[in-house]
Amino acid sequence: MWTVVESPIGPLRVVEQHDAITAIEFSPFAAADGRVRGDRGDAHPVLVEAVRQLDAYFSRELREFDLPLAPAGSEFQQRVWQELGRIGYGETASYGQIAHRIGKSNAASRAVGLANGSNPIPIVIPCHRVIGANGTLTGYAGGLERKQTLLSLEQEALF
User: Fold this and answer.
1) What pLDDT score was predicted for residue 136?
2) Phi first, then psi: what are they for 16, rounded to 5°?
3) Distance of CA 4 to CAs 41, 102, 159, Å?
4) Reported pTM
5) What is the architecture of the domain spanning 75-158?
6) Second label for 157, Cα 20 to 30 Å away, from 29, 91, 126, 146?
7) pLDDT at 157
8) Among the options 127, 130, 131, 150, which is catalytic?
């Protein structure tokens, strides 16, 4: 099932399967990309809670999400996504730092970047908090403008 939530970065489609969030998608939404989404289910309890938490996050009232998550990915991707979840609200880390945190060398930075870009649950799994080694914004599946908005939202909430 899925629902749509309005946000400062545009509409987001939140998808659940088996009572866990499996995806958050930026608009424009993909049509036939092979992902299972099912029917729209705005009243599904997991989706209702996800919308509540996303609204609270965008209102600067929530810093940590507490949702059941089930992102589909390889073992390496899962390790990267788990580490992304450890980057604190308003903080950033580089691809190289993430590689080191999962026990890899800087040579794995590119693989970390690919895993980061494949994150199916952005915002909740905060891939927007990963930046280049020199502190610059780098690619983001939702576009750099959305990434900048998310980082600014978190920074402004800290002060």
Assistant:
1) 80
2) -125, 150
3) 9, 33, 30
4) 0.91
5) Orthogonal Bundle (1.10)
6) 29
7) 66
8) 127
